[in-house]
């Protein structure tokens, strides 16, 4: 026989419920959670990819040693090689999804991330890239499960155009690969350049992986432009810089390079003395890879790590995007931690995506949060290559623009800002015409002196 609940009892229960302080609901935490790691361990981005993979493992180890984040859950990461190839990357993502990972860290290049994003969306598994910057990835209709801890090219392209404008250059040439990353970034730059009154003398491109780019470089020479804006992955940048001198693009000839985050990396010249010589004095942009106590702590870990176990470790100069791979792992861990405390299942991809989108925390790369497109809008370092090191000589962001904090040494070895073109590029045959004009003016003077 069920007991009758009187009106008095209902009122009493209501009053009791109002007097009890609500507690934070906690579900039984899973014994372990596994992330999928997608890294270019071979192919055009392998030099930096192996370091990003190593950084992701250091993040997992630090999280498992920290009682304040996922204290009752062991975090794991199951890695796959994308080979810097969209088809290989998509197949690797499918393997990881079928293995039951709750999130995907990666990929590196934008074209590979786009291919993986289709698999991630179908399986409702969130994906966080540590270095894919193509502006199209901001489209949440097309890539609803894609997030990134780096700023998009829609910001970097503007940064490059504004920097070019600040140095007073009115005319530039562009050189990029024709893939999603290379062309996407240059397209943004072109739009921003037009807004700043900058003329593109010639826009050259070549297929990713091409072995000969001398034709494109010669066309740039013929255009008369002396400032060359670059956007491509590391392997293709090696090709460009290794062949530049052969066609006459040298500091002695007055040329200067402005690079995006792709070519503005020390790995470009690690195995090429020709590339290193050609790159001297170039400037470029790269997302600020970190500062403060957490960044220094990561560098301590990186320096102390065994390079035989963690590729590239053992110093305080990790790959530009190693810290971003580290923070991508932390983003997943923090979101999963919050969900478990709230009584939610972190393997529910739709709920996990919602939690990730709302995250706000400080990582090795600084404050991290995502906008409505799941993009991170950050600060760019302005870098200048001096001998064997890219030195930070300034910063750029949407609010403050360019701020120089150091001295730029240009390709000619001086601090004098290069000119953006020579006279002959403005009017074909200009020098010949001027010579003829000068001779014509001298004839009457000579005749006059005879009399």
What report would you give on this structure?
There is one protein chain. The protein is of the alpha/beta class and 451 residues long. It has 2 domains: 198 residues, Rossmann fold (3-Layer(aba) Sandwich); 180 residues, Response regulator (Rossmann fold, 3-Layer(aba) Sandwich), CATH 3.40.50.2300. It is 40% helix and 18% strand. The strands form 3 sheets. An 8-stranded mixed β-sheet has the order 7-6-8-9-10-13-14-15, sandwiched between helices. Helix 6 links the parallel strand 6 and strand 7. Helix 2 runs parallel beside helix 11, helix 3 runs parallel beside helix 4 and helix 5 packs across helix 6. The chain is globular and about 65 Å long.
Note the gap between the termini: 139 Å
Overall tally of domains:
2
Class inferred from helices and paired strands: alpha/beta
β-strand number: 15
Q: Report the sheet-strand fraction.
A: 15-25%
Poorly predicted residue ranges: 1-26, 423-451
* Series of secondary-structure elements, N-terminal to C-terminal: HEHEHEHEEHEHEHEHEHEHHHEEEEEH
Q: What quaternary form is this?
A: single chain
CATH superfamily grouping of the largest domain: Response regulator
Spatial order of the strands in the main sheet?
A: 7-6-8-9-10-13-14-15
Shape: globular
Cα radius of gyration in angstroms: 27 Å
Sheet with most strands: 8 strands, mixed
Mean pLDDT: 89
Q: What is the architecture of the largest domain at the second tier of CATH?
A: 3-Layer(aba) Sandwich
Which CATH top level class of the largest domain fits? Alpha Beta
Measured as a percent range, the helix fraction is 40-55%
């Amino acid at each position: 026989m069920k007991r009758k609940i009187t009106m008095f009892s209902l009122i009493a229960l209501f009053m009791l419920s109002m007097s009890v302080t609500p507690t934070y609901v906690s579900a039984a935490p899973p014994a372990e959670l596994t992330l999928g790691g997608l890294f270019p361990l071979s192919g055009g981005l392998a030099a930096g990819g192996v370091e990003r993979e190593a950084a992701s493992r250091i993040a997992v180890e630090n999280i498992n040693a920290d009682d304040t984040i996922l204290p009752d859950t062991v975090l794991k990461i199951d890695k796959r090689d994308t080979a810097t190839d969209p088809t290989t990357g998509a197949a690797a993502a499918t393997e990881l999804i079928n293995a039951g990972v709750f999130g995907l860290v990666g990929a590196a290049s934008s074209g590979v991330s786009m291919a993986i994003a289709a698999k991630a969306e179908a399986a409702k598994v969130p994906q966080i890239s540590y270095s894919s910057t193509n502006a199209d990835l901001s489209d949440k209709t097309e890539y609803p499960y894609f997030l990134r801890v780096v700023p998009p090219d829609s910001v970097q392209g503007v940064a490059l155009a504004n920097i070019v404008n600040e140095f007073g250059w009115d005319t530039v040439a562009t050189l990029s690969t024709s893939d999603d990353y290379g062309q996407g970034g240059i397209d943004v730059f072109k739009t921003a350049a037009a807004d700043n009154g900058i003329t593109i003398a010639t826009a050259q491109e070549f297929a990713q992986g091409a072995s000969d780019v001398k034709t494109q470089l010669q066309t740039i020479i013929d255009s008369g432009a002396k400032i060359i804006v670059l956007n491509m992955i590391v392997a293709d940048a090696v090709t460009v810089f290794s062949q530049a001198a052969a066609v006459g693009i040298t500091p002695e000839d007055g040329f200067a390079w402005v690079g995006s985050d792709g070519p503005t990396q020390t790995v470009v010249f690690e195995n090429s003395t020709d590339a290193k010589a050609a790159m001297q004095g170039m400037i470029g942009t790269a997302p600020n890879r970190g500062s403060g106590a957490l960044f220094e702590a990561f560098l301590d870990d990186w320096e102390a790590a065994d390079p035989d176990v963690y590729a590239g470790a053992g110093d305080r100069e990790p790959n530009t995007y190693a810290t971003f791979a580290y923070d991508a792992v932390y983003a997943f861990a923090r979101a999963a931690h919050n969900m478990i405390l709230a009584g939610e299942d972190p393997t529910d991809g739709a709920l996990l995506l919602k939690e990730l989108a709302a995250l706000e925390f400080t990582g090795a790369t600084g404050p991290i949060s995502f906008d409505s497109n799941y993009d991170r809008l950050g600060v760019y370092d302005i870098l200048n290559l001096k001998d064997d090191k890219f030195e930070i000589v300034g910063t750029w962001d949407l609010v403050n623009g360019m701020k120089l904090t150091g001295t730029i040494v240009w390709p000619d070895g001086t601090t004098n800002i290069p000119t953006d073109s020579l006279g002959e590029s403005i009017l074909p045959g200009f020098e010949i015409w001027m010579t003829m004009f000068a001779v014509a003016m001298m004839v009457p003077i000579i005749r006059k002196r005879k009399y």
